[in-house]
Design a protein that fits this description.
This protein has about 400 residues and is mostly beta strands. Among the domains are: about 20-165, sav2460 like domains (Lipoxygenase-1); about 265-400, Sandwich (Lipoxygenase-1). It contains one helix and 31 strands. The chain has one helix spanning about 5-20, and strands spanning about 25, 35-40, 50-55, 65-70, 80-85, 95-100, 105-115, 130-135, 135-140, 150-160, 165, 170, 175-185, 195-200, 210, 220, 230-235, 240-245, 255, 260, 270-275, 285-290, 295-300, 305, 310-315, 325-330, 335-340, 360-365, 370-375, 380-390, 395-400. The strands form six sheets. Strands 1, 3, 4, 7, 10, 11 and 12 form a seven-stranded antiparallel beta sheet that branches. A hairpin with a 2-residue loop joins strand 8 and strand 9. The longest helix is centred in the N-terminal third of the chain and has 14 residues, at about 5-20. Keywords: Carboxypeptidase, Hydrolase, Protease. InterPro entries: Carb-bd-like_fold. Pfam families: CarboxypepD_reg. GO terms for molecular function: carbohydrate binding; carboxypeptidase activity. This is Carboxypeptidase regulatory-like domain-containing protein.
Length: about 400
């Protein structure tokens, strides 16, 4: 991490400027599980910078992910392979990946200057060309223009539909964790939050990589050793939150936003905080539970903002990022069900918008964080996250996606 407070602030300022923009590029027609997809990257013959890259494959059922390097690499099951040199063999200033056949899920392409591994604000060559060929139909993506960084998140490809998103995100370094920390109850950024990185196996804190959030709540930690880590967020008068990150199989930029709950919850109360990225703009939290006269209650943005003066929706976000926060003050006998609905894509039965949103649910019970749920990488517009037994207070993960226009 940056050494010294001055360097930490400078690093956060630089990185915040680099991690910008979300440009969507949609295909004119959807391709359902294309038989063959090719991704080809070319750059100028006389360019001083040689590129390398990594194609991240769809998440597997156990939550693990594999990635295929940019030259002469193959996925474990053989459905993705990569090569160098263009298709005519005329230039080595190229990279290519072949997906055959495509799988359900999201493929993500990252490109890097080959010789750089540390912090780099290199200006990207506007002659870099990225083309995606789906069953013979070629689509050219916009080149990087006046952008700087050591890692370019060039595209996200939906293997089920052939839809392409062009994020146009640039990062100063490959191996980094970044994000924003906010108050779960009002969505305001939290400055001065201490962010610590701890080895998940040994429990050892990497003190040289400790940092604090800026005035906008932003932080970045980078250039740490490969490994599995816990990221802990601590602020006076707030409950500490922890999120796990795995850098054993990749060294790609990883987003970890955090929503901290004020440390004022009674022991019997539960606070549930939902955060996500810029897209889809409107995700909604829903809570069902036992009500009066055997009639279940339903808290959401449109059904009920408060029930029996005890359970309520603190924040309803409609322009991306969240938070959507629900507080339960005391449990009654019965089952509580918490779900997240992709209101933006509610009528799209092929949607991977929720899976690609980066959504995370953090659960606080009394003065502790008791659970965190990342959204599964599957199709669906409704995410059934967990249930709570009102008699015992036990939380049971569900963590599944399904389609429903109204949850």
């Amino acid at each position: 991490m940056f050494h010294g407070a001055q360097n930490r602030r400078a690093g956060m300022e630089i990185s915040r400027k680099v991690i910008t923009g979300l440009l969507l590029f949609g295909l004119s027609s959807a391709h359902l599980l294309a038989s063959e997809i090719s991704i080809n990257v070319r750059w100028g013959t006389f360019s001083p910078t040689q590129l390398t890259g990594a194609l991240v494959l769809p998440e597997q059922l156990d939550g693990s992910q594999e990635f295929v390097q940019g030259r002469n690499d193959t996925s474990q099951d053989g459905h993705v392979s990569s090569g160098g040199g263009d298709l005519r063999g005329m230039s080595m200033n190229s990279l290519s990946w072949t997906i055959q056949p495509a799988r359900h899920g999201l493929y993500q392409l990252y490109l890097f200057p080959q010789a750089e591994s540390g912090i780099n604000m290199r200006a990207w060559d506007s002659q870099v060309v990225v083309e995606v060929e789906i069953d013979g139909e070629v689509h050219r993506l916009d080149p990087p223009s006046s952008s700087n960084g050591n890692a370019w998140h060039a595209l996200t490809l939906n293997g089920a539909t052939g839809e392409i998103h062009q994020p146009q995100r640039f990062f100063p370094v490959r191996r980094m964790i970044y994000g924003n920390v906010r108050n779960a109850q009002d969505g305001e950024p939290l400055a001065g939050v201490t962010v610590r990185l701890t080895d998940a196996l040994s429990g050892t804190s990497l003190e040289s990589h400790e940092t604090v959030t800026s005035n906008t709540g932003f932080y970045v930690i980078h250039s740490f050793p490969m490994g599995r880590y816990n990221v802990t967020f601590e602020q006076e008068d707030f409950i500490a939150a922890t999120s796990s990150v795995d850098f054993m199989r990749h060294d790609l930029p990883t987003l970890r936003n955090a929503l901290l709950s004020q440390d004022n919850l009674p022991p019997s109360s539960i606070r549930i905080a939902l955060s996500w990225g810029a897209n889809p703009p409107d995700l909604d939290a829903h809570l069902r539970g036992p009500g009066d006269d055997d009639t279940p209650f339903h808290i959401s943005y449109h059904n009920m903002r408060i029930y029996n003066e005890r359970h309520y929706l603190d924040v309803d976000a409609r322009e991306g990022y969240g938070p959507e926060t629900i507080t339960i003050n005391g449990l009654d006998s019965g089952t509580y069900q918490y779900t997240v609905h992709d209101f933006t894509n509610r009528r799209n039965r092929n949607s991977w918008g929720l899976a690609g949103s980066g959504a995370r649910v953090t659960v606080y019970h009394g003065s502790q964080q008791v659970a965190e749920f990342p959204v599964p990488q599957r199709e669906g517009t409704v995410w059934d996250v967990f249930t709570v037994d009102g008699d015992t207070g036990n939380l049971t993960p569900v963590n599944d996606l399904r389609f429903a226009e109204t949850p």
